[in-house]
Amino acid sequence: MRAAVLHEIGQEKLEILDDIEAVGFGPGKVRVRVRATGLCHSDLSAMNGVLPQPAPFVPGHEGAGEILEVGEQVTRLKPGDRVVICWLPACGACPACRRGQTELCLAGFMNAGTPNFRRPGGDVFGFAGTGTFAEEVVVDAGCAVPIPEDVPFDIAALIGCGVTTGLGAALNTADVEAGSSVAVIGCGGVGISAVQGARLKGAAEIVAVDPVASRRESALKFGATKAVSPEELADAKQQVTGGEGFDYVFEVVGRSATARTAYENTRRGGTLVVVGAGAMDDFLQLNMFELFFDEKRILPSMYGGGDVLSSYERTIALWRAGRVDLAGLITHRVPLAEINEALDQMRTGTALRTCIEI
Asked: What is the pLDDT of residues 7-37, one digit of tens each?
């Protein structure tokens, strides 16, 4: 079968190979025919080494498709079922799951160290234990979440990561208060989803911050009341909040520099929500006096900060009701053979989300 492979960390281009085999099928596993997958910035971060990932590997973790085969002990799925890939399934038994913090379950991370694919040259891993830039993937049954018939594969793929992360940051982690002021720094697919989440919660002012003009324009269409470049953020802070700072600031870039900017633009007693996934050697510096004196809450948001399965259901319900726009997030579509074009679209910021049709 075909898959897009990164041979070494740091390479900028993927190679499309047709000698890949999905491996690991057996009890508790399912084989999925991938139909659509989104390109998430985390895929780029894994390719350039910001996020740890063994190589060679098949990127992609935001996918949807249909079940081809189920292993023994799999009772809730059958061939033909339409599913979204969940890259961080909850085991239901660990301390985090028992506390109700299923998004912090580490069971799914353990899959990242087991090869998902094989080719004549040796083993190939799947990013985040999945690897959806492939025609087929074998995953734990818990990674395959059934979706209703009326949810298209491309929409379902977005729900698998970016939309759930962005919406959840606003709805779950921050629990944005109606009438509040919000700034979202970084307005790709995840940031735009955070904008939509803040709008759903009734935020009075939502300022979208991004260096790319097309993304700023898009943010206004999705519910932002103002869109500015990073250089214009100080003026927006003055205009919207009288210089006090925003009630909520979402950092959706994953860099200490933007997190520091987000902190400085959060009002005293306000909330900074860290959504972007950054590098282990990139440190955010805060002095102990400001930390104490300003009493700003710093809330990291992992995968939307809530139960993933419930978040999927909520997103589908909101989409059906026309309360969130998911189709509008897909600004580009390419076949798997043109995956490197999609990478360029992500790097230049010309795409909110590119759908790879497989």
From this structure: 999 999 999 999 999 999 999 999 999 999 9
Which pTM does this prediction carry? Answer: 0.95
Angle between helices 213-221 and 189-200 (to 10 degrees): 30
Average pLDDT estimate for 125-154:
96
| DSSP sequence for 142-192 | GGEEE--TTS-HHHHHHHTTHHHHHHHIIIIII-PPTT-EEEEE--SHHHH
* Residue with the two structure tokens 């028992």: 98
Strand bridging mode 226-228 / 144-146: unpaired
pLDDT score for 43: 96
Q: Single out the residue of 104, 105, 129, 101 nearest to residue 115, CA to CA.
A: 129
The residues, ordered by sequence, that sit 6+ positions from 204 with a Cβ below 8 Å of its Cβ are 178, 179, 180, 181, 225
* Residue of 303, 333, 330 lying closest to 109 (CA atoms): 303
Tokens at residue 279, please? 């590098």
